[in-house]
Design a protein that fits this description.
The protein has 461 residues and is α+β, with helices and mostly antiparallel strands. It has 13 helices and twelve strands. The chain has four domains: 99 residues, no CATH class; 96 residues, Beta-Lactamase, CATH 3.30.450.20; 71 residues, Signal transduction histidine kinase, dimerisation/phosphotransfer (DHp) domain (Helix Hairpins, Orthogonal Bundle), CATH 1.10.287; 152 residues, 2-Layer Sandwich (Heat Shock Protein 90).
Amino acid sequence: MFRRLFLTYLLLVVATVGLLGLLTYERAEEVFHDLMRQVALAIVLVVLGAVAAAYVLARAFTRPLGELREGARKLAEGDLGHKIRVAGSSEHAELAETFNAMSGRLASTFRLLEHDREQLRAILSGMAEGVIAIDASRHVLFANDRAGRLLEFDATKAVNQKLCDVTRLAAFHAVVEKGLARTDPHREEFDVSGPAPRHLSVYVSRFPGHGMPGAVVVIGDMTDVRLAERMRQDFVANASHELKTPLAVIKSSVEALIEGAADDPEARAGFLEQVLREADRLAALIKDMLSLSKIESGALRLEPRAVALGKAITDCVERHHPRADAKTLTMVEKPPSDVPADVPAWADPDALRQVMDNLVDNAIKYTPNGGRITVRWGATGDTVSFEVEDTGIGIPDADVNRVFERFYRVDKARGREQGSTGLGLSIVKHLVQAMRGQVRVNSMLGKGTTFRVTLPRAGSA
């Protein structure tokens, strides 16, 4: 631009001076030679002045355009806060103001987009589900931390990598390919084997429209949901089985009485005893099921307070002495020698009573005649504890960790014969945990079993 303007001005000046020189030359023959020299000198001075004037004029016109060009270059490079300062004509100043206004609007738009982007990233990063966005060539556009934990990869290094290089989980890639091959969203679940087996759910949805090929993949961990579902199914199946057995005995006894056994006093008494026994068993089972349901649903409202542990144990032993005596069992209480008798536990009195009754009841059921049951207690630091030890049949090592499961019995036939519902220890575990305590079991097959319950000490809870 500068060169073109300068050459234009210079051409005009040279043409003017040339014309003047021509006229002067035609008249030179009519004047003296010294006048010719003066005119020639004047022409040289005029040419030099014209050149200088052309340079100054061209420079003054093109300088604002250069500043505008430099400002536009910085704007294109991302310097959206750059302001163009032009000292020139009103047209140049107006053009500079237009550039500055455009730069301000672009800066505001980009700040808003960056804010929305960071907000979206924060939302996706805080999701419980894993989220991965991929393009048509299976390159990762985005991956949150949860996706990295579920599929075992580093989410911060996954962007721009091929999905097959990020995770090698074949089942996951199969689901993604199915989703990309379809126009509607695709959802599928699969199991992941390993030291900690998991059940994952993958939802694949392609980006809408044709301008952005690719898809968003949402991964959810369904392990706990499926476990809860299996537990519910097992609970329903076990409860149905437990309810069916006493009902079958009651039904058969009533049928026998209807068919004529009622006329025989001895037979009638036997069948009625069976009906009463199974009815009591049904009542106990339903009561335990309702209690467990109430505890697990959080509907049970415990009211913990200071409870004298020694007195609670003495009362429990007295309640169960008649049953122990009926089996010629020796049941003793062993208070500690170094702890005050009234040391308080921080517990709900009714829940503590139910825990003790269940543990002592179990000990009586599974200890052969002539055996021994010992209830001891003590306190250490911020906790109190008590133990129920028996010399019963014991628990095999393979079953020790499962005795707190609902309806689990080591010997199912013996458990039903003893009138066990299979829910007592599960209730014990949930009640102790609700009181911020712990329950443990130690057993040797044929030697006996010891249950130990630890609770907070009143004043330290």
